[in-house]
Amino acid sequence: MIEMITRRAAGARRAFTRATILPFLVRCAIGLCGIVAMSVAWPFELFGTQYSVPLVAVALYPAFAPRGRGATFAALTVITGWVLDTSFQDSPVVLWRVLVIASALYLGHSLTALAAVLPYDSVVNIDVPGLWVARALAVILASAVLTVLVLTLSAQLAGDPFLIATVIGLAGAAAATLLIARLIHRP
């Protein structure tokens, strides 16, 4: 057991000394996105207590091990915190929180995908992570604008026809997802 811990510590020390700046900055951005999403999603009173340590560890885990399921687990932890805060703590669902959580989760997940294929000791041109982040920020901006427009429109069109259209739209989206998944796994 001690030998395994020593071997892992030596591997981590070697990786840290060989790391180059851009892969390191990508991993720092993953950690920052995780902490932002976690701190906005969970009740603010929780931070500064002993319960914040595991949340910060979960938020930072994808930055250290981007190839595993850590990003998914961190995202599920963020979503769980938001649901618990809005359901049981009676916090209001406000647009800025939803947009910040969604943006941080998307950017963190996208950067985790980049870090998974980007070795920590690789020499990379600034264009690679720069274009990756620019595309992710464009998606975030378009999503935020569409979200605000749809919410504004839904407030004006609220009623039974809008509810029916929403259910039909969700059913269509689910059907399209199933169809695409089936086509991908086709022999």
Would you kindly provide a written description of the structure presented here, covering whatever features stand out?
This protein is mainly alpha-helical and 187 residues long. It has one domain (2-158). Helices cover 80% and strands 0% of the residues.
In oligomeric terms, what are we looking at?
A: single chain
Taken as a percent bin, the fraction of beta residues is under 5%
- Globally, the shape reads globular
Radius of gyration: 20 Å
Name the helicity range: over 70%
Unreliable parts: none
How would you sum up the major sheet?
none
Note the run of SSEs as H and E: HHHHHHH
Number of domains: 1
- Helical stretch tally: 7
Please identify the structural class as seen in this structure: mainly alpha
Keywords:
single chain, mainly alpha, 7 helices, 80% helix, 0% strand
Describe the secondary-structure layout:
Layout: H1 2-18, H2 21-41, H3 52-64, H4 70-88, H5 95-117, H6 127-157, H7 160-184
